[in-house]
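Dear U.,

Please find below the material for section 3 of the report. The protein was modelled together with zinc ion; I have listed the sequence and SMILES used, followed by the predicted complex structure.
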Amino acid sequence: MSATDSDSPPVQPTAQDRNQAEARRVLNAACPFRCCAVCGLQITTCLQVAHLDQNAGNNVPDNLARLCPTHHWMYDAGLYPIEAIRLLQAHWQATKGVPDHKRMRPAGVKAARTRKRRTAARKAVATRQKNAEAPV
Ligand SMILES: [Zn+2]
């Protein structure tokens, strides 16, 4: 073993280990909706296959994620935990890129509460002004 071999990181894939075509085939079968797992970008020519454990020879579906170049770089830099990528990818596969508005809080309830508070506040201001103007 030469000095340069011992300096390289232990999980660097060798040329024999890396099989991007196999990784894409496995990921397409496991995750048919194609988008970046983080931002949802659906421009398929921009998407890259990321190996979540940094081992390019590990092509099991749980180890693969589709990421845009920016988020692939951010993941490799350690800015996203592996579980976040898996959860986001599962979310995109479930929603197919369509937002789920049923999970949002109904806006009508909050708006009605705001109207009620605003009416009470205006009534209180009017009462204070009336009391201030009234002779004692
Ligand atoms: Zn992205």
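For the text of the report, you could mention the following: The pocket of zinc ion is lined by residues 36, 38-39, 41, 67-68, 70-71 (CB under 6 Å).

Regards,
Y.
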